[in-house]
Amino acid sequence: LATGPRQNNGIFYEIRTYDIKPAKMKEFLEIVNKYLHFRTAHSELVGFWYTELGAMNKVLHIWKYDNFAHRTAVRHAIANDKDWQGKLMSAILPLLEKQHNEVAYLVPWCQLGKPPKEGGVYEWVTFQMKPGGPALWGEAFRAAINAHINTGYTTLIGVFHTEYGLLNTVHVLWWNESLDHRAAGRHSAHEDARVVAAVRDSVRFLESQQNVLLLPLQCSPLK
């Protein structure tokens, strides 16, 4: 089933997740921090993170494209970029175990945000919703997100729903000042009747949920 409503433009986001070989993460991060500028010369990087809790030996990066023709042109250009191929890709490929990508749109009611300051931690929350797309569960999901925002303990960066990949998947990217600040905020939120009511309504459409703590690379625009 189609994912339903999206923003009224062609902009989409490619979400790439790489599994790194155990004991090779430090080497991978050093290479990416040193040479990623060869890749960002071709298109906009939203953010680049590695996992700290909830998953191990993974990195996640998000790329923004104006439309699918833009992505095609970028992929053609980087395939012919000798610096990118020789200094970055050839160095990291032996360190990878698996690659996965998704194409996602921002939900209609969300604009991509930024944290109030550098530092802090990011939380990547993946919700697998029941088939039907935002037309079915969008309003209830929005209410649950807004209920958490209104507590004031966390900052919303973006809400993405998939177009390619596993459909009816929603990824929510949050920023918190620290992991302890997040823990205290969530504890208070879960005692807030408004949050409890909104979440209870939205989970009617929920099949599964996973949370991952992310830390940004030095080269990440979102820090």
Automatic annotation (TrEMBL):
Family classification: Belongs to the NipSnap family.
Q: Which GO terms describe its cellular component?
A: mitochondrion
* Example GO BP: mitophagy
**Alphabetical list of Pfam families matching this protein:** NIPSNAP (PF07978)
- Enumerate the InterPro entries for this protein: Dimeric_a/b-barrel, NIPSNAP, NipSnap_domain
Record protein name field = NPS3A protein
Q: Which organism is it from?
A: Cnemophilus loriae
Start and end residues of each NIPSNAP domain: 13-111, 122-221
